[in-house]
Amino acid sequence: MSTSELHPDDTLEPSFDALEQAAEWFALLRSDEASAQDRQSWQRWLAAQAEHRKAWQYVERISGRFEPIQSSDSRQAAVQSYCLANRRMGRRRQLLLGLGTLAGSSLGSWLAWQHTSLPGTVMAWSAEHRTARGEVHQLTLPDGSTVWLSSDTAMNHDYRGNQRLLSLVQGEILIDTAADPARPFLVETRQGLLRALGTRFTVRLDGQETFLAVYQGAVQVDTANKRQQHIIHAGQQTQLSRTAIAATTAVLPERQSWTKGILVTDNTPLIEVVRELQRYRGGHLSVSPEAAQLPVIGSYPSTDPDRALRMLEGVLPIRIKRTLPWWVSIELAEH
After folding, report:
1. The pTM is what?
2. Residue 167 lies in a domain
């Protein structure tokens, strides 16, 4: 039975338990220990609920497999299918990279990119400055401004004419701007335009929103639809969509510590810590609802998420469960 034939509800979000069950089934079926009875039981589990099917599709997507595992008669056949899928994806990626390069040379600006149908991943691949997952990179721009790129970040810069423009494609950057009154320093995202007013600040893409935290000076914010404009001052942070700017809240200076590969927490819910570590680690990383709100205090190595997880396991009543090399979940420890 192909999961593509099951038509799960695309709006359904699988629960933690459903995802864990799917990962356990996946681990069993890819091993040499799965029997015909196991496969029948898996199919019954899959057919029982739409949530199960959605969870299974998520696990397949994370695993990088492009052929359903149940079609393989043995682990060797599954590996052959996996390798073939990887070769196909490699050819597809080369094609997309070529398209991205061609598009970059013809569009010439970030504003033009916003109105094309090219996927964001293609633009990230073809960006001038990129970091791999788990990498933090410091960059000095032509005017002397300094930019730190966080994990899995992509950015372009354009210093032509009378302005300095950074285009954040994905991820997070921290900017320490150099003074140049004749050329404004701008950062553009899909949600709006940020103008530095002699400042040090962070810009981060979070789904359909842009997060901004200002540590020195101020930043003028304009939404993409040009209908809202605010000035965010040092010590403040906000989020903006294409149409609105959220109310400001206080920012912790320690939040900048990611530039040194450190995640600083102060009674931070575990779920938020996990979300941050996920940005530095490939695969799936999740926390059960029962453990999600445990308070975390201390400093952890964000660029070494597996070590950070071991440290968390040493100070919190949790258990780190590794169902697969790329599937890690956190649960409350059993007493």
Report:
1. 0.71
2. yes
